[in-house]
Design brief:
It is a single chain. Helix 1 crosses helix 3 and helix 34 runs antiparallel to helix 35. By secondary structure, the protein is mainly α. Strands 1, 2, 3, 4, 5 and 6 form a six-stranded mixed beta sheet that branches.
C-alpha cells in the first residue's frame, strides 16, 4: 500500500481547523490580558510577553496536531507505549526528561503548558507590582478614589522650541505649574521633585518621549492625571499649551492654551493655570471638593480664582463669614469677577439682612457684570436679583422656566425655594409646600452642599415633619459640624418626635443666646400646628412663663392677651400694634386696652420706625378715621421708598412704597367706602409686604373682592395657611365657599379654624361661627 501524501497527512492532522481554533483562543487571551493589565495596573511588558508565549504555543500546537495525526502514534497509544491524546502523564514526561528525550506531544500536555505559562506571566507581573509598589511602566489605576481624596496631577516637562532663552521653561514649567495648580478646586499636584526623579529614571536626556512613555512617567508618580505641554517661541511672542490626560483611561480630559509676549511667560502661565482649572472643574467637578458652576468662572486672575475656590470650600460648609472674606479677596483681585460677586451677595445675605448696604452693593455689582456670565448663569442671577432682591413677582416665571429647562441643576431649585420663602409666600404666589419641594430637590441633587439644608430643615419643622427634619439635621451636621446654625438643632429637638430630646431642650432654653432664640422665633411653627400644647410649652419657656399676646390672638384668646398687654411694662407701640390687629379683624378690644391705645404716637423712631410699627399704627388710624396719623405714615413711607430707590436699595424702597399703598387701600375701604380704589391700592401692597403686614393686607383684599370676584377672593384666603390671621382667614374662607356652593370646601376651612380655636374665648364671634357652621353642614 502506497504511503500517504503530504497533503493527506496535513488534512488528516486537521491543521486548518486547529489553527482557526487556536487563533480564536489567542484573541480571547489577549483581550483578557488587556483588561487585567489596565484594571490591575500591571506592567506594560505583560501584553508583549503574552503575545510571545502565544507564538511559541502556536508552534507547539501545530506540532502536536502533526504528531497526533501520524498512524504510528495511534498504534503506540493502542499498545500503551505512549500516553493517549488527552493524557498528561506527568511521571512519563518526567522520565523522558531524565533520559534526555522530549516528552511525547499530547493535547493535554500542550494545553496544560499554555495555562501554566500564562499563569506564571500574570502571577509574576502581580508580584512585581506588589514588591516594587510601582506601576512602572504602566499608567495609573482605573480609580484612585478621587471622590474621596484630592485628585493628583503630575506636571511633566514641557516641549520647548524657539530659542535657547526659553529652554529654562522645559523643566521650569514643572515647578511653576505644580505650585499654581496645587489645591485649586480640590486638586493636588505631585511634588515636582518626585516627577523629575521618575522622568530621569525612565526618559533621561532632552529628547521628547512619545505620549505613552510620558504618561507612564506620570502614572509612576501615583497621579490620577498627567499634564503635558509645549511652549513655542516666535518673533511675535510665545504660545503655551497644555493637555491633561486621565491616566486611568489614557484619554485627554482638557486642553488649554495662552499666547502673549515672550517677556511675560509667568503672567501667561498664571492665565494658563486659570484655564486648566476651569476646564478641569467643568469636565469633572463632581470628583473634587467643589462642584462649582465652572462655566461661570470668567476671571483670568490666578489670585482671584484661588480666593474664590477657597471661598467655595467654606461656603459649602455653611461658613458664611469665612466665605464672605474669601469672596471679598477674590473681588479685590479682580473687580470684574461676576461669579465671585454673586457668591459674595449670597454669603452676606446669610450674614445680614437682604436689605443691608453690603448686600445691596454686591447685588448691584452682580447686575452690572451679568453680561460676563454664560446664558444659564446670567438668567439665574438676574432672576435672583429681580425676584429676591427687588421682589419682582414676574421673576417666578423665570425660576420655573429654569427649573424646567435645567432640572438637574441644584442651584436653580435652591433659588426657586428662596424666592418662595422670601417673596412668593408673602405675596400669595406660592405655598410652604412649594418651597419645601424646591429645597428638597436641591438637596437631592447635591446632598453635600451645606447651605441647602438650612431652610429645608426650617420648613420641615414648620410643616410638622419632625422625623424628616431630624434626618436632614444629621446630614447637615455631618457636613458642617454640630455648632453651625444652632437654632436648627434646637428647633428639631423642640418640635421633633423625641420626648427626651424635647425635655432636655426645654430645660436648657434659658441658657440659649438671644441670637439663637431670635432665629428660632422666626422659623418655629408657632401658628401652624393645630396641637398647641407643644408650642405653648416652648413659648412659655422663652417668655418667662407667659404666652405672647400675638400668639394668644392667633388662637382666639383675646381676654388673656388683653390681660398681658394691660401690664404697663409693655412698650406702648407693642400694645397699639396688637390692638390694631384686633380692630383690623373686627374684634372688640378688651376694655382694659381701650384707654391705653388712644395715643397713636408710639413708634420709637419717626425717621424709620420699622415697617411693622408704621403699618399697624397707620392701619389702626385708617380703621378709626384718624387722618392726621394715617397720612403721616403714608407720606413718610412714600418718602422712604423714593429715598431707598435713589440710593440703590430697590427692595427696601419697594417695600416702603407697598406699605404706603396698603395703608391707602385701608383708608379707601374703611373711610372712603370706595371698593375700586381699595382694590387697586391693596393689590399693589399685598405683593411686597412680609409677615403680619402682608396677611392683614390680603385678608382685606379678599373682603374687597368677595362680591365682584369671589373666586379671586377665595384664592387670596387660601394663601393664608400660616401666621396670626390664619384661623380668622379660614372662617372667612368657609363663609365664602358656602356662598359658592362648595359645602365640602367650606367644612374643611371651618374644621381648620375650629382646631386652631380649640381654646378660644367662648364669646369670640369667629370661633362661634365656625362651630355653628360645622353643626349646620355636618362634620
Amino acid at each position: 500500500m502506497p504511503a500517504p501524501s503530504l497533503w493527506d497527512r496535513l488534512r488528516g492532522a486537521r491543521i486548518v481547523q486547529v489553527l482557526l481554533v487556536y487563533l480564536g483562543a489567542s484573541w480571547a487571551v489577549l483581550q483578557i490580558a488587556d483588561v487585567l493589565t489596565e484594571a490591575l495596573s500591571l506592567p506594560g511588558w505583560v501584553l508583549p510577553v503574552a503575545v510571545l508565549l502565544l507564538l511559541v504555543g502556536l508552534v507547539i500546537i501545530l506540532a502536536t496536531a502533526w504528531v497526533q495525526s501520524l498512524p504510528a502514534t495511534t498504534a503506540k497509544e493502542e499498545a500503551g507505549e505512549i500516553p493517549t491524546d488527552w493524557q498528561v502523564a506527568p511521571s512519563e514526561a518526567l522520565a523522558s526528561l531524565k533520559a534526555g528525550k522530549l516528552p511525547h506531544l499530547t493535547w493535554g500536555r500542550a494545553i496544560l503548558g499554555g495555562v501554566v505559562a500564562l499563569s506564571l506571566l500574570f502571577g509574576g507581573a502581580g508580584a512585581y507590582v506588589l514588591v516594587t509598589g510601582s506601576r512602572v511602566p504602566g499608567l495609573g489605576p482605573a480609580d484612585l478614589g478621587a471622590d474621596v481624596a484630592a485628585a493628583g496631577i503630575a506636571v511633566l516637562p514641557f516641549a520647548v522650541t524657539g530659542g535657547e532663552d526659553l529652554d529654562l521653561w522645559r523643566e521650569g514649567m514643572v515647578d511653576v505649574l505644580s505650585t499654581n495648580l496645587d489645591g485649586m478646586g480640590g486638586y493636588r499636584t505631585i511634588d515636582a521633585r518626585t516627577v523629575m526623579a521618575r522622568w530621569h529614571e525612565q526618559v533621561g536626556g532632552d529628547d521628547a518621549p512619545d505620549l505613552r512613555t510620558a504618561l507612564e512617567v506620570a502614572g509612576a508618580t501615583g497621579a490620577r492625571f498627567g499634564l503635558l505641554g509645549n511652549l513655542v517661541g516666535n518673533p511675535g511672542g510665545v504660545r503655551v499649551a497644555a493637555d491633561v490626560y486621565d491616566l486611568s483611561t489614557g484619554n485627554k480630559v482638557t486642553q488649554s492654551y495662552v499666547e502673549g509676549p515672550a517677556d511675560s511667560v509667568l503672567a501667561l502661565v498664571n492665565r494658563l493655570t486659570v484655564g486648566i482649572t476651569r476646564e478641569l472643574l467643568a469636565a469633572g467637578g463632581q470628583q473634587v471638593m467643589q462642584a462649582p458652576r465652572a462655566a461661570s468662572i470668567t476671571t483670568e486672575s490666578l489670585e482671584a480664582l484661588r480666593h474664590y475656590l477657597d471661598g467655595e470650600v467654606v461656603y459649602r460648609k455653611a461658613d458664611f463669614a469665612g466665605a464672605a472674606a474669601a469672596y471679598e479677596r477674590a473681588t479685590e483681585a479682580d473687580s470684574t469677577f461676576a461669579l465671585a460677586w454673586y457668591r459674595l451677595y449670597s454669603a452676606y445675605g446669610w450674614l445680614e439682612d437682604l436689605n443691608s448696604d453690603v448686600v445691596g452693593r454686591a447685588g448691584r455689582r452682580v447686575e452690572e457684570l451679568a453680561d460676563r456670565l454664560p446664558m444659564r448663569e446670567r438668567a439665574l442671577v438676574l432672576a435672583v436679583q429681580r425676584g429676591v432682591n427687588e421682589g419682582d413677582l414676574s421673576a417666578i416665571s423665570d425660576f420655573r422656566q429654569a427649573a424646567s429647562k435645567y432640572p438637574d441643576d441644584p442651584e436653580v431649585w435652591y433659588e426657586l425655594g428662596e424666592f418662595y420663602l422670601h417673596v412668593g409666600i408673602p405675596a400669595g404666589i406660592g405655598t410652604s409646600a412649594d418651597a419645601l419641594d424646591a429645597l428638597q430637590r436641591a438637596v437631592e441633587l447635591d446632598p453635600s452642599f451645606g447651605p441647602y439644608y438650612i431652610h429645608l430643615i426650617e420648613r420641615l419643622v414648620a410643616a410638622g415633619k419632625g422625623a424628616e427634619a431630624l434626618d436632614a439635621l444629621a446630614s447637615y451636621q455631618a457636613l458642617v459640624g454640630s455648632e453651625a446654625q444652632p437654632h436648627l438643632g434646637l428647633a428639631v429637638a423642640l418640635f421633633g418626635q423625641d420626648p427626651a430630646a424635647r425635655a432636655d431642650a426645654l430645660a436648657a432654653l434659658d441658657t440659649v443666646s438671644d441670637i439663637v432664640t431670635d432665629n428660632l422665633r422666626s422659623v418655629a411653627p408657632w401658628y401652624e400646628l393645630p396641637d398647641a400644647v407643644a408650642t405653648e410649652e416652648v413659648l412659655k419657656a422663652m417668655n418667662g412663663g407667659r404666652l405672647p399676646p400675638t400668639y394668644l390672638v392667633s388662637r382666639g384668646r383675646i381676654h388673656e392677651a388683653g390681660e398681658g398687654l394691660a401690664d404697663r411694662s409693655v412698650e406702648p407701640w407693642r400694645r397699639v400694634s396688637q390692638v390694631a390687629q384686633l380692630e383690623l379683624l373686627g374684634i372688640a378690644v378688651p376694655p382694659e386696652l381701650v384707654d391705653a391705645t388712644r395715643d397713636l404716637d408710639v413708634c420709637p423712631d419717626r425717621e424709620d420706625a420699622g415697617e411693622n410699627c408704621m403699618f399697624l399704627v397707620g392701619a389702626l388710624a385708617a380703621v378709626r378715621g384718624d387722618r392726621a396719623t394715617w397720612k403721616m405714615w403714608v407720606d413718610r413711607n412714600h418718602s422712604l421708598g423714593a429715598t431707598y430707590e435713589r440710593d440703590g436699595q430697590g427692595a427696601h424702597g419697594k417695600e416702603h412704597e407697598a406699605l404706603a399703598r396698603a395703608l391707602e387701600g385701608l383708608w379707601a375701604w374703611y373711610q372712603d367706602k370706595d371698593p375700586r380704589a381699595a382694590r387697586e391700592h391693596l393689590s399693589a401692597g399685598v405683593t411686597r409686604l412680609p409677615g403680619a403686614m402682608g396677611y392683614a393686607t390680603r385678608i382685606h383684599l379678599a373682603e374687597v373682592l368677595a362680591d365682584e370676584n369671589p373666586r379671586e377672593a377665595e384664592a387670596q384666603l387660601e394663601r393664608m395657611g400660616s401666621g396670626v390671621f390664619t384661623a380668622y382667614a379660614m372662617v372667612r374662607l368657609g363663609r365664602l365657599r358656602e356662598g359658592l356652593g362648595d359645602v365640602d370646601g367650606a367644612k374643611e376651612a371651618y374644621q381648620q379654624a375650629t382646631e386652631l380655636f380649640r381654646n378660644a374665648d367662648d364669646d369670640l364671634s369667629y370661633a362661634v361661627e365656625a362651630r355653628e357652621a360645622l353643626g349646620r353642614l355636618g362634620t
